[in-house]
Amino acid sequence: ILDFQPRMSLITRTLRLASTDLFHYVCLFSFIFIGYASMGTFLLGDRLPQFQNLGNSCSALFRIVMGWDPLYRAMFRAASKSKTQSTAVVFLVFYWSWII
Questions:
Q1: Boundaries of each Polycystin cation channel PKD1/PKD2 domain copy (predicted)?
Q2: In Å, how far from its chain's centre is CA 79?
Q3: Does the pLDDT value for residue 57 go beyond 90?
Q4: CATH code of 28's domain
């Protein structure tokens, strides 16, 4: 595509050579992202509208990673209202492992 100029064609050649690795990275990232979104829906779906379904969970997780939506306190309060304390612990592991 950018072969009209040698330096610009370096970009397309690099992407062409890395396409297999990029494909595998995107597949793995998607698998992990959907897993976290499912866990967010399972943990917080009945308490927070941002996690009511998988689409909302994906959007909320993306906003959290980008730093656009500081939901931590609302999410922790919602997880703490559970009947068992283990939900709060699972939430903390879920949230901090997602951020890191």
A1: 2-67
A2: 19
A3: yes
A4: 1.10.287
Give first-to-last CA distance, the chain, whole Å: 37
Give yes or no for residue 1 having a pLDDT over 70: no
Residue type, 22: L
Q: Count the domains in the chain.
A: 1
- pTM, two decimal places: 0.79
What are the b/e assignments for 52-84, b being 16+ CB within 10 Å?
Answer: eeeebbbebbeebeeeeeebeeebeebbeebee
Identity of residue 94 = F
Of 88, 98, 100, residue with least CA distance to 32: 98
Q: Which domain holds residue 50?
A: 6-99
Tell me if 42 is assigned to some domain. Answer: yes
Look at residue 1 and tell me if it is in a domain. Answer: no
pLDDT of 89 reads 85
Residues 6+ apart with CB under 8 A from 53: 41, 45
d(CA 58, CA 69): 13
